[in-house]
Amino acid sequence: MKKHLIISTSIDLVRISPEHIVYITSDGNYSTLVQTDGEVRMLSYQLGQIEKMISSQLSSEGNNFIRIGKSLIINRSYIYYINIPKQKLVLSDVATFSHTVTASKEALKQLKELYEKEETR
């Protein structure tokens, strides 16, 4: 059976397929989850807590998610464009959506190097 990420609070529950998550960004004690359909959902969890949920609930499917810096978790399936000097990362499926996020130059440099290593395997 296909795995879903389940994020539950005292008042609501979100059950979402990993491939529908584009990225999650932090905002203090809250996080914002952006979906492929454009839906934006505020979650009352810190990014570290969500990172643990991804790891424990999705097992190997959780490997699609990468934490970049202190405030961003991205779905690596949607990495489309990395520009280190402009601190720009575009996440897109190249058909229906495109999201531009910013990250530190160091974080983007590490991400770019990770992808270059994976491509040479």
What can be said about this structure in brief?
The chain has 121 residues and is an alpha+beta fold. The chain has helices at residues 47-58, 105-119, and strands at 5-8, 13-16, 21-27, 30-35, 40-43, 65-68, 72-75, 79-83, 88-92, 98-102. The radius of gyration is 14 Å and the shape is globular.
Report on this model:
- With 121 residues, the protein is an alpha+beta fold.
- It has one domain (5-119): OB fold (Dihydrolipoamide Acetyltransferase, E2P) (Beta Barrel).
- It has helices at residues 47-58, 105-119; strands at 5-8, 13-16, 21-27, 30-35, 40-43, 65-68, 72-75, 79-83, 88-92, 98-102.
- The strands form 3 sheets. A 5-stranded antiparallel beta sheet has the order 5-4-3-7-6, with helices on both faces. It has a 3-stranded antiparallel beta sheet with strand order 8-9-10, with no helix packed on it. The protein has a two-stranded antiparallel sheet with strand order 1-2.
What is the topology?
Blueprint: E1 5-8, E2 13-16, E3 21-27, E4 30-35, E5 40-43, H1 47-58, E6 65-68, E7 72-75, E8 79-83, E9 88-92, E10 98-102, H2 105-119
Antiparallel strand pairs: 1-2, 3-4, 3-7, 4-5, 6-7, 8-9, 9-10
